[in-house]
Structure formats: C-alpha cells, structure tokens
Write a structure and sequence with these properties.
This protein is α+β, with helices and mostly antiparallel strands. The chain folds into two domains: 4-195 and 383-459, 3-Layer(aba) Sandwich (Aminopeptidase), CATH 3.40.630.10; 203-257 and 303-370, Alpha-Beta Plaits. The chain has helices at residues 4-12, 14-25, 37-52, 127-144, 166-172, 230-239, 262-270, 275-280, 295-301, 341-353, 380-393, 408-416, 441-459, and strands at 57-61, 68-73, 82-88, 108-112, 115-119, 150-156, 181-184, 196-201, 203-212, 218-219, 304-312, 322-323, 326-335, 361-370, 373-374, 398-402, 420-423, 438-440. A hairpin with a 6-residue loop joins strand 1 (57-61) and strand 2. Helix 1 (4-12) runs antiparallel to helix 13 (441-459), helix 2 crosses helix 4 (127-144) and helix 4 (127-144) packs across helix 13. The longest helix has 19 residues, at 441-459. It is globular, with a radius of gyration of 24 Å. The mean pLDDT is 97. The structure holds ligand BES and zinc ion (ZN). The site of ligand BES has 15 residues, from loops. Ligand BES binds next to loops.
C-alpha cells in the first residue's frame, strides 16, 4: 500500500472533506450548558454515522453526561500496531456573542491576510482537528480498501467541561479500549509553523469561591465604613496570591515542582522561541511573571495561579452605591511536575480562610483537578512520526511542551496503561475558547496529509 495516491486523493477530496467538517460545525455541541444537551447528542450521532460510512464498527455509548463514541476498524498486518485515536466533539460556549463577526455555528471559508480560514466555534478546538484524522483514514480506505493499522476511535463530549464521565467510562470499558498507543489531536504547531510532538502537559486545578459578609446588599452611604465589604476582602486576598517576583504564595505550592533538566533547557533553547512576537500578536510587549525564567519555561514547565473571573455588587450600566453581600471569584492553577492538585486545593482553601476578617465567611466549589503529564516517548511511533512530519510542513518536527491541559492523556496512562502521542495542527492565533475561532484551511489540509503519513510510517 503506497502513500502517494492517498495524499493525492486527500487533495482532490478537500472540498468534500471541508463540507463534512462544516456539517459537524453546524451542531452547537456546547457541553457545559444543559440547554445544548440534545446538540451534544446529535454531534455524537453525526460522528457515528460518519465513521460507519468508512466501515468502522461504532456506537454511541451513553454516560450520565454526554455520550461517548467508541468504534473499531481492523487494518494492517498482524504485527502492525493498534492505535487508539481520541478527540472531543464538544465545544466551548460562544459568549460574548456580540464580539463574533458571524454566527459561530454557521461555518464559512474566509480569506484573510494569513490565508483561507474556516471560521466557526470548534473549528480548531477540536472538531477540525479530530476530522483531520478521520479524513486521513477515509482516504486510506478509499484508496487501498483498508488502513495500515488497527484503529480504535474514541470521542468524548465533555472535554470542555471537565470530563466528569471519563474516568468511570475508561474503567468500565478498559478491555474494549486496549491498544498499543493513544493518539490525540488537540494541540498545536510550534510557533504556528513547526510540527510539534508534545512531551509534557500542565495539570489543572479549578476553585470557585464566594465570600459572604452582610446578610443583604446595603446602601454604601448608610453602612459604608462601619460594615465589612466582601469584595474588598476578596481582592485583598487574591492580590496576595503572587509576590512582587511573581511567586505564588499558597503554602506548599512549589512542592513537587522540578527544575528544568539541563538537557531539556538546551533542547528548548535550540527552539529559539520568539517571545516578542508571541506577546506582540496579542497586543503585549513586556513579559510578566517570574522574571528569572525563559518564556518557554513560563508557559510549559512553571506552575501558575490565575484569576479567571471575579464578580459581585453592581456591574450593570450606570452606577449603584451598593455595599455587596457577596463577592465571587474563579481561580485556576496550572500544575507541573509532581504537584498534587488535592494538596494544593486544601492548602489554598486554608490559606484563604486564614485571611478572613470577622463577619466574613467563605464557601468553595472545586472544579476538576488533574496532574501534569510527562509523555513516555520510547514507542517507535514517536521517531517514525517525527521523521515524516517534516516532509509535510517543510520544517523538522520538534518535541515540545504544552501549557494547556489535556487530562485524558494522564488517564490513558493510569487506567489503560497506555502511552499517548499528542500532535496537532492548531495555530496560536486560532482564538480557541474566544470569539471568532478559526482553523486555517492549511492546518486542515496538511493535518489530514500528516495523519496519512503517520499511519503509513507507523503501520509499515
Ligand atoms: N485543546 C485544549 C488544550 C490546549 C490548550 C492545547 C492550549 C494547546 C494549547 C483543550 O480543549 C482545553 O481547552 N483544555 C482545557 C482543560 C479542560 C480540563 C477544561 C484547558 O487547557 O484549559
Ligand atoms: Zn478547549
């Protein structure tokens, strides 16, 4: 089975492939909002049907939340590896809707200064990416009647909302999900140009807190001065999260944070990451954060604490002199090395409690806790893939870190005892999770061709 006709077929079929992706993008599968539960279900059905159309034996598997899609197709010689491909069909909410230049669920091709893009929510994260893999399989099957490897397809519909059903599902279906290596397409190119195989991911811990003071909102002229203001307390506490050097002040936070090994420091330095362009692209120019660290270290191998949202009192139009009863915040921590999310959660809560003045109480809600992941790159697929990706992108592939979190990779290891190779074609300016999300048509086309090459290299 030769690769070249598969690549040619991918090119001649690109328009049809784009149409198929558009069909999936039209389904508003926002997992976090219960109003879209039926749409999540529809997206799962759509994937089942599409996989069936290329001969995959596949079904929709219910969970207490949104369904999983699990399918299998044979391929390759007896000794060809068995791969498990993972992607997520759910997307982030679209708000603020007024910042979109078009309906987020009415995909279109747009010509931009950077080339043609597919504009829609989920185009990059992760429907466009997961379809690159399916399209590569479709082309192989259409050209040669079969795939070069056995493949299990696994699609989740709750990734963007903390994957509540994932661990029980993996535990229950362990046998069905055995494979030699997992593949995940949910990451990006290094500096939007260079194919990157991700060797480490940060973990994530979410905490929501409500500080409560007076038993109702008060007039700030009548009570201000004599009564405690929970927003003032909250901002003071959150203001204490970092010191002047950017170090996080929660006790024990840095337990388990490793220093970068000299080998990795050398490897990352050789990537010659352009910090100025990276920040310049989002309207910034001065690196914030720990001043004695390189930019890649800050993004890939240092832990963070960020305030993701903060509200309370009166935030509507005009002005209201209120002394609020409550103050709210959402805080998240990106974790590295062996940092223990559960210990950090406890330490954070105790640290907040210890700073509360009289008459103020706090309630916490936890939002998911995943450890950082370090990939084992010894499976031959890593070198085989690295060798062929360069031909597609015109740059040798690199081993890189990723500042984002993809907890499923850790669960594949701990529950299925399977290593994961993460490769993806997203660009830094895809605006994932933001208004006007896009996926470059180039990412889509070269992404499909890349997977065709990887399947060829790994299967033979
Ligand atoms: N595709 C992203 C992960 C990602 C982010 C990769 C940035 C490359 C760069 C994924 O869908 C995601 O958004 N993950 C969440 C975590 C999840 C548990 C909500 C994240 O990283 O915030
Ligand atoms: Zn995402």
């Amino acid at each position: 089975m030769t690769l070249d006709p598969v690549l040619s077929r991918i090119d001649s079929d690109l328009e049809a492939a784009t149409d198929r992706l558009f069909d999936l993008l039209r389904i508003p599968s926002i997992s976090t909002d219960p109003a879209y539960a039926a749409d999540c279900d529809r997206a799962a059905d759509w994937l089942v049907k599409d996989l069936q159309s290329i001969g995959v034996e596949v079904g929709k598997r219910p969970t207490p939340g949104h369904p999983m899609v699990l399918g299998h197709i044979d391929g390759g010689d007896a000794d060809a590896p068995h791969l498990l491909f993972y992607g997520h069909y759910d997307v982030q909410p679209v708000d603020p809707l007024d910042l979109w230049d078009r309906d987020p669920f009415d995909p279109a091709l747009e010509d931009t200064a950077g080339g043609t893009v597919i504009r829609a929510r989920g185009s990059s994260d992760d429907k466009g990416q997961l379809m690159t893999f399916i399209e590569a399989c479709r082309a192989w099957i259409a050209e040669h009647g079969r795939l070069p490897c056995k493949i299990t397809f696994f699609f989740e519909g709750e990734e963007e909302s903390g994957s509540p059903s994932l661990i029980p599902f993996l535990e229950e279906h362990k046998e069905l999900m055995q494979a030699d290596l997992a593949l995940i397409c949910d990451t990006g190119l290094f500096e939007s140009r260079v194919p990157a195989i991700i060797t480490q991911l940060r973990g994530l811990l979410g905490e929501e807190l409500v500080l409560k003071g007076p038993d109702k909102d008060l007039h700030s002229g009548m009570y201000g001065g004599a009564s405690i203001n929970p927003i003032r307390v909250l901002t003071r506490i959150l203001g204490n999260l970092h010191d002047d050097q950017g170090r996080i002040q929660v006790p024990g936070f840095y337990d388990g944070v490793p220093e970068l090994s000299p080998e990795l420091a050398k490897q990352w330095k050789a990537l010659e990451f352009d910090h100025a362009t990276f920040l310049g692209d989002v309207g910034l120019n001065t690196p914030a954060g720990e001043q004695d660290r390189s930019a890649l270290e800050m993004i890939w191998s240092r832990p963070t604490a960020e305030i993701n949202g903060i509200w309370g009192g009166y935030t509507g139009d005009g002005f209201k002199t209120v002394l609020p009863a409550e103050a709210h915040a959402k805080v998240s921590f990106r974790l590295v090395g062996h940092q223990d999310p559960h210990a950090i959660r406890e330490n954070f809560r105790a640290w907040v409690q210890a700073q509360l003045p009289a008459d103020v109480t706090v309630e916490f809600t936890g939002h998911g806790a995943s450890k950082a992941g370090l990939m084992n790159t010894t499976h031959p697929a890593f070198e085989q893939s690295r060798a062929v990706l360069g031909a597609e992108w015109g740059h040798d592939a690199v081993f890189a870190g990723c500042g984002g979190s993809i907890p499923v990779a850790g669960h594949f290891k701990s529950i299925l005892e399977m290593d994961t190779m993460l490769v993806g074609w997203a660009k830094d300016d895809d605006q994932i999770h933001s208004p006007n999300e896009k996926y470059d048509l180039e990412s889509f086309r070269k992404g499909i061709r890349s997977w065709a090459r990887v399947l060829d290299a790994v299967g033979s």
